[in-house]
Amino acid sequence: MRICIIGPSYPFRGGISHYTTLLYRHLKKRHDTKFLAFKRQYPDWLFPGKTDKDISNTQIREEGAENILDSLNPLTWCKVVNKIKKAEPELLIFPWWVSFWTPQFWTIAALVKIFTRAKILFICHNVVEHESKIIDKICTRVVLKKGDYFIVHSGDDLKNLKTIKPDADVKKCLHPTYDIFSTELISKEDARKQLNIKGKTILFFGFIRPYKGLNYLLEAMPLIIEHVDVNLLIVGEFWEGEKECLEQIKKLEIEENIRIINKYVPNEEVGSYFAAADLVVLPYVSATGSGIVQAAFGCNKPVISTNVGCLPEVINDKKTGYLIAPRDSMAIADAVVSFYKEGKEKEFVDNIIKENWRFSWDRIVDTIESFNNRGNKNENTSFN
Fold first, then answer.
1. Do the beta carbons of residue 235 and residue 258 sit within 8 Å?
2. Beta-carbon neighbour count of residue 147 at 10 Å?
3. 167 touches 246 (CB < 8 A)
4. Is the domain covering 179-358 a CATH 3.40.50.2000 domain?
5. In CATH, what is the architecture of 2-176+360-383?
6. Residue from 211, 170, 224, 223 nearest 326 by CA
7. Do residues 131 and 210 touch, judged by C-beta distance below 8 A?
8. Which residues contact 222 (CB under 8 A, 6 or more apart)?
9. Are the beta carbons of 35 and 5 closer than 8 angstroms?
10. Residues linked to residue 202 through DSSP beta bridges, in sequence order
11. Phi and psi (nearest 5°) for 283?
């Protein structure tokens, strides 16, 4: 099959960039695949972090990616369409995660529909973005109406998509594992020496926004410390709420048990933070999917997570981690204490290794191929 992918890759950072690059890597093993990547992603004033560029020494990149799409230059949108016309693909793949890409993706998709026979597949990381406004939902509806096929990673996103496009030809396939970071793993002892951490350690990883629920994890810490002497490692760039977080830590008098690394973590350092931890905690208030869970599982780390979005579909409760209710600090504390008191680490790690097949990149390639291989359109399928 001839395939074109549009999306971010190096030199841009973040989960969507990693995902799209790895998808290209695995697709081109089986198919004639062209990757038309971003030349400019967001204007500086719009991006909430310090930069959207990847500062890593170990880059996640793939030979053959063409960085040509400039979000603010419509001439490059036309250039992308011309590249697609020349490639004559059977399938054009877009990632969808935020409404900023409405004018660019709508224009490209509309022109592709006019000038080529390519079918359009949207891989929806979020059908509706976190903390979205009415305008975001309208933009999402406008763009996704251009799709022929869809892949979602959660039951919630499946419902959201069906609300926007009831006749959507959609398949649900679990988010693949980010095992790329496991190549940088060192032993737990060496990681803790490197980071100057001693004793039991739990990890909160990823950029910080209100929906991540960090405040509930902080509220749980005094309850945890009553039973288990544990460190909380908070690693990620604050996009919002840094002042409130520091004030909460001081008020709870847990400064000695907290370490904050307020920065975007380069790829080569990610493995050290996961290696140093016994357990990864995701106290999310809301979610559709999470690349953090897949990074944790890729590093064979158990997870405590709220049962929101796709997370109950990914985490096997009391087998590969714990599922708890959102906004419940006591539940977080109980799960952490149980993990240590009952000595669950080895059992959970063994189970994670056994379940790795559920999150392979081959499964999502199989899912993409299945749209082309079957004749019965609108046959909805789940690949769990």
1. no
2. 23
3. no
4. yes
5. 3-Layer(aba) Sandwich (3.40)
6. 211
7. yes
8. 252, 253, 254
9. yes
10. 232, 279
11. -90, 40
> What are the tokens at 346?
């080895």
Tell me how far apart the alpha carbons of residues 27 and 226 are, in angstroms, rounded to a whole number. Answer: 50
What is the C-alpha to C-alpha distance for residues 375 and 346, in angstroms, rounded to an integer?
Answer: 46
- For residue 91, what is the DSSP state? E
The reply to whether 2-176+360-383 and 179-358 are identical in fold is yes
User: Can you read off the two tokens belonging to residue 276?
Assistant: 């140093």
pLDDT in tens, the chain (384 residues): 999 999 999 999 888 999 999 999 999 999 999 999 999 998 876 776 678 888 888 888 999 999 999 999 999 999 999 999 999 999 999 999 999 999 999 999 999 999 999 999 999 998 987 666 889 889 999 999 999 999 998 888 899 999 999 999 999 998 888 777 765 668 999 999 999 999 999 999 998 999 999 999 999 999 999 999 999 999 999 988 999 999 999 999 999 999 999 998 998 999 999 999 999 999 999 876 678 998 899 899 999 999 988 889 899 999 999 999 999 999 999 999 999 999 999 999 999 999 988 888 999 999 999 998 754 444 455 555
Q: Which residue has the tokens 């190549």?
A: 183
Q: How far is it, in rounded angstroms, from Cα 299 to Cα 282?
A: 16
Which residues, including other chains, have CB under 8 Å from residue 325's CB and lie 6 or more apart?
A: 306, 307, 331
How long a stretch of residues is the chain? 384
Residue with tokens 């906004």: 327
User: What is the rounded distance in angstroms from the CA atom of residue 21 to the CA atom of residue 26?
Assistant: 9
Q: Where are the domains of the chain?
A: 2-176+360-383, 179-358
What is the H or E stretch that residue 282 is in? strand 279-282
Give the H or E element holding residue 70: strand 66-70
Which pair of tokens denotes residue 232? 């909380």
CA distance 275 to 74: 44
**Residue 232 and residue 258 in contact, taking contact as beta carbons nearer than 8 Å:** yes
The dihedral formed by the CA atoms of 259, 262, 267 and 273, expressed in degrees to the nearest 10: 10
